[in-house]
Every structure is written in C-alpha cells, then in structure tokens.
Design brief:
Elements lengths: L2 H21 L10 E5 L4 H9 L5 E6 L5 H12 L3 E6 L1 H5 L5 H8 L3 E5 L10 E5 L3 E5 L5 H5 L3 E6 L2 H17 L1 E2 L6
Parallel strand pairs: 2-3, 3-4
Antiparallel strand pairs: 1-7, 2-5, 4-8, 5-6, 6-7
Helix pairs in contact: 2-3, 3-5
Length: 185
Amino acid sequence: MKLEVKMILIRVLLTALLLPFLLTRPCQADPAQVIHYAPAENLEHIDVALIDTATREIDMAAYVLTDWPIIQALTRAADRGVRVRIYLDGTQLAEREPSKPFHDLAETPTVEMRTKREHGAPMHLKSYQIDGRLLRTGAANFSASGLKRQDNDLIVIESSGAAGAFKHNFENQFASGEVLTLGMK
C-alpha cells in the first residue's frame, strides 16, 4: 500500500476516534450543595428566603405544610405572579383543620394544590424546585417543629439538573393527584 493511502487511512481513523470527544462540551460540574441543620439553625428563615427569590414557578411536594411563614411566603410568591403547584400527602392534610393562611394560599389564583390519592404508602417528600434552577430537599417537614426544634436537615442544591430531575418526578406525581378542594376554591 502506498504511503499516501496509509496516511489518509490513519487520519480518517484518528478523526473517527477523536470526533466524539471534540464535539462534546467540556464537563461543567454544578455548584456544591449547602446543608443546614436544625435546631442549630432556623430552617424556616432559609425556606422563606428561598421562596422569596422565585420569579416564575415553584413546585413543592410536602408531607406536611403547616408552617405559617412558609405558607405566607408561598402566597406572596403567587401574588407576584409566580406559578405555585403543591402536592400534599392527603392523610396528613386530613388529620388537622387547615389554618386561615393555608386557606388564603389555596384561594390564590396562581396556586394549584393536589393530594396523593389513597395508594397505601404516604407521600413523604419535603422538597421543592424554584424556577428550574434550585432544589430544596431534606428531612425537615414544612412545620414549625420540623424547621426549628427537631433534629433535621435542609439541603439546597443550585443545579438545573437537580431541579429538573425533581420536576420530572413531580410532574408524574402531580398529574396523578386529586385536586384539593377546601370548600373555598
């Protein structure tokens, strides 16, 4: 085989081997998560501050949602035009009479609430995503005791990938949920 032909074959082979690496973007790691711990920190303040940054959407999955400052922050977000969707555990919600701030939130036009249909296992998430850029998760329920008195953690991940993964799962849960009616909405 002529030398010219061999050189062309080598170039073609090297191009074929290296092309996938040349066409992919460099790996860009998302920023690290920040972990907060109660009762050393007041997690309620962190949640309220995060919710107050929302400009487009909040998708929340809440086993318990009884903390008034968080409910009021969600209402403020909705009042400024943020789309708020909340997926709740129906058994937890049925155990107590919803508060006036909860009713106010449920009556807000850009808020949609659904509960998990009865399927045995509880919906035990305590998470939300904001604007497709941030995920809040952890062990802390959205209750005064869960956020301020109990040994709990709250993890904030500023990552479109993490927020997107949560949103994908949330979409499926929310779609299968039952629309919450409190007799006011």
